[in-house]
Amino acid sequence: MKKEIEFTINGKSRKLTVKPNELLLNVIREDLGLTGTKYGCGTGECGACTVLIDEEPVLSCLTLAITVDKKKVTTIEGIGTDENPHPLQQAFVETGAVQCGFCTPGMILSAKTLLDKNPNPTEDEIKRAIEGNLCRCTGYIKIIEAIKLASVRMGGRRK
Amino acid sequence: MREFKVVGKSVPKVDAFPLALGKPLFADDIELKGMLHAKILWSPHAHARIKNIDTGKTEALPGVHAVLCYKNVPRVVHTSAGQSWPEPSPYDIVMFDNKVRHVGDRVAAIAAETEEIAEKALKLIKVEYELLPAVFDPEQAMDEGAPVIHDEPDCKYLIPVFYDPKHNHCAHIDLEVGDFEQGMKEADFVIEHKFKTHHEQHCSIEPHTCICYFDHAGRLVIRTSTQVPFHVRRIVAQCLQVPERMIRVIKPRIGGGFGGKQEVLIDDVCAMLAMRTKRPVRLVYTREEEFTSARVRHPMVMWAKTGVRKDGTLTAIQLRVLSNAGAYGPHAMTVMNNTCAKALPLFHCENIKWIADAVYTNLIPGGAYRGYGVTQAAFPMGVMMDEMAETIGMDPVNFWKMNTIKKGETSPIFKALSETGKGVEMIVESCSLPECIDRGAEIFGWREKRERFKNQPEGPVKYGVGMSCMVQGGTVPLIDMASAFAKMNDDGSFNLLIGAADLGTGADTVLAQIFAETLDIPVEDVIVYPSDTDITPFDKGAYASGTTYLSGMAVLKTAEKIKEQILNVAADMLGEPKEDLRIENKAVISSKSGKRVEFSQIVKRALYIKDQFQIAAIASELSRLPPQSFAAHFAEVEVDTETGQVKVLSYVAAVDCGTAVNPKLAEGQVEGAILNGISYALTEEFFFDDKGRVLNPSFGDYKIFSAPDIPKITTILVPSYEPTGPYGAKTVGEVNINGPLPAISNAIYNAVGTRLYDTPFTSERVLNVLKEKGAD
């Protein structure tokens, strides 16, 4: 029994017919072709599939697609472009926070929610915000540095 | 130290922006028309013979396009280890066998229209097993009467080495340099302990991923998350019994490897399914499969015995190693060899005895893992050094400095053994380890903290500091080869085609910097195209800390050949001898006349005006002398004696990787390796039940560190200049994962007076050791 859902994806309205058990991750990657959202574990434990639903980070591998009906979904492709990258994307590049880059989209989206709500996060607040996003390459140090840099550039003052 | 324009600068990674923007760069980010989805049926038993497989119902299921099992694929013994041919790993695996050797071993594979159908189809396969007794403990694997895991008659090595599969004996080598017994006699103190290290999974966030399809010419294209594209081509051709010319391997961006992707783990099955169905096929491991059916760091049992004189002289070292290869032997011998070849040259000692065995057991197979045997050996050696220093009453800082190899010195081990067997005689051309120790100790506050922690606070929480030093030789001498090709474009930019496989480390960037430095151009003018077996020249792949050093030299030589060609054209254009010309800022300038001609003019002349030809070059580099990278690590820990919990408070690493071609990327390698090492030391652990099943195959139950867990980590790059490397560079990928086990164990001892000889240092283990001590 498929169901039609209507939602906003990266600022554009979309209608899709989905199976009730379809995962949001698969809809985003396969139906919408937005492959910046990654499969890393399928059990909500690595954060590579993080997307924003109504500005809140959500694990799309654990979310049924039908639940985003009438909601606003943002993926990594929706927050910046080549010409106009998001300050977090810019900061991740500059600080060396991108190694393999597989966790980067989820990491940036978790950080974006943090900075949107709290422009001046402490280091502990940054760490807690990305707690659910695993990275095996960087040791997180340059990721934390990137988020601090972006927070300054986005108008926050460092504490 | 030489000054460079591009080398030594932290230019942003050439692929960082597209990655941060979430562009479709990884293996699984393409969708092909008519693509099928593959799933593998895994063995539920640790050791069993397959009496029969009935796939009738599966094949009849609508949407299933192919089913593979031992009955319908060629039996080609090979190794899954992605190493240079002839591989120094046993040929002991086939695509599908009529026997399973560990829980999670391959039984059958399916390609179906959807993943859902494939999963449903798996359940319809009827397998009749004859259960066999299993052996899990490496110390019992060679016992008389132990179950024989590889009883098939066709398992073998291609190279002449010891192999006795009838006794589960996968590899054995021993050697002695100097006279160990004599060294023991000269010692004032002899120390002896047994150590154990544990399983570890790589945990690349991107799982193993492969997509196979046929191109317009009917050739098989393998798009795969690999560290070794050229070895994948060779091994898949072998397994499928097709010529290499029928196969093209493309390595896209890779989501981390750490050795786990130095393995032909899924490519052969995916390719065979594509061959059978003539459709594109996609095979992606689940996270659970990464834990049950990929590879792990070899767990080892080690017996160390050392002799030391009161004056601090290290008189003898003996290391006995028993490596648990698991069900198959990829990398088993070479990882085992590195417990000597790449670990023991660190020490000033003339009398060294090393005895090593690798045995088969019915557990998940070991494989390549960052550190590759050196991590295992660095643990007993680092703890023994600490205990010897304490025994003779010397500060570990001084003891390490006194007993580690220096610039201009050699080790008898270099000549005696390499990773693959025979060694090469060499001296250490660059080494800043003594400065690493001094600067690391100073920044860490070693002396103050050692003094402070002599008086522990009241209450259950105690504090301690520990250190360890480490080495890791890069490349496998006389075997590893890398090459690069470059051509000049109309605007004076260059395409740099490299066989080297950037697996997320920044290799493409580092190699672009080396190229740019040689031709005095900005990095933006270098368009890097990595690792496509149809297009780029051969490179052994990303392993053995070889890329910056070896692929870097190939790139440097390529750039130098191009430079010659540019100067020849410029000499003709300017009417001046080549000897008077130099390259500067994308132009050739005459030192005599001051005349100047731009790269863009030179290339236009070459392509369109006179004596037309393509300015282009190819060059290769063979590893002759493996460069040695060093580090000194310092850890400060807090131990709760009531709960046994160990927390690392601060960690300092002082690292000699030669010239850091890109310091930020080098720091990233250090930080990543250290955190992986700390997480391995404290929380990562496999749990098996008595049937050999992995009980915790998920990130929820196998704890790798996340951001709130990290201690304060300080990285100090202490440069040296390696004359055989590109612009003085050595290697940085692996060495730093060798520090956390010994440094943390030593710090725990400093805090609570109890040594940990078994890993990991979980609350339970620490508490048990403390209880034992209390009971004494």
Describe the largest sheet of chain A: 5 strands, mixed
Low-confidence stretches of chain A: none
Mean pLDDT of chain B: 97
Largest sheet of chain B: 7 strands, mixed
CATH domain class of the largest domain in chain B: Alpha Beta
CATH homologous superfamily grouping of the largest domain in chain B: Aldehyde oxidase/xanthine dehydrogenase, molybdopterin binding domain
At the fold tier of CATH, the topology name of the largest domain in chain A is Ubiquitin-like (UB roll)
Describe this structure in words.
The complex is a heterodimer of chains A (159) and B (776). With 159 residues, chain A is of the alpha+beta class. Chain A is built from 5 helices and 5 strands; from the N terminus they run E-E-H-E-E-E-H-H-H-H. Chain A folds into 2 domains: 76 residues, Beta-grasp domain (Ubiquitin-like (UB roll)), CATH 3.10.20.30; 67 residues, [2Fe-2S]-binding domain (DNA polymerase, domain 1), CATH 1.10.150. Helices cover 32% and strands 16% of the residues of chain A. Chain A has a 5-stranded mixed β-sheet with strand order 2-1-5-3-4, covered by helices on one side. The longest helix of chain A has 14 residues. Chain A is globular, with a radius of gyration of 16 Å. Chain A starts with a strand and ends in a 6-residue tail after the last helix. The model of chain A has no long low-confidence stretch (mean pLDDT 96). Chain B folds into 3 domains: 151 residues, Aldehyde oxidase/xanthine dehydrogenase, molybdopterin binding domain (Aldehyde Oxidoreductase, domain 4, 2-Layer Sandwich), CATH 3.30.365; 187 residues, Aldehyde oxidase/xanthine dehydrogenase, a/b hammerhead (Aldehyde Oxidoreductase, domain 3, Alpha-Beta Complex), CATH 3.90.1170.50; 332 residues, Aldehyde Oxidoreductase, domain 4, CATH 3.30.365. Chain B is built from 19 helices and 28 strands. In chain B, the strands form 7 sheets. Chain B has a 7-stranded mixed β-sheet, with helices on both faces. Chain B is globular and about 90 Å long. The model of chain B has no long low-confidence stretch (mean pLDDT 97).
